[in-house]
Amino acid sequence: MKNISIIGSTGSIGTQALDIVRDNNDLKVVAMSCGSNIDLMERQAREFLPSLISVSKDEDAETLRVKLADTGIKVVSGMDGLIEVATIDSADIVLTAIVGMIGVEPTLAAIEAGKDIALANKETLVTAGHLVMKAAKEKGVKILPVDSEHSAIFQSLQGNRRELQGEMDNKVTRILLTASGGPFRGKSKDELVDVTVEQALKHPNWSMGPKITIDSASMVNKGLEVIEAHWLFDKDIDEIEVLIQPQSIIHSAVEYEDGAVIAQLGTPDMRLPIQYAFYYPERRYLRGDRLDFSKIASIEIQKPDYETFKGIPLAKEASRVGGSMPTVMNEANEHAVAAFLAGRIKFLEIYEMIAYAMSKHTVIADAGLRDIIETRDWTDEILRDKYHV
Ligand code: NAD
Ligand code: MG
Question: Residue 335: CB partners within 8 Å, gap ≥ 6?
Answer without folding.
Answer: 353, 379, 380, 383, 389
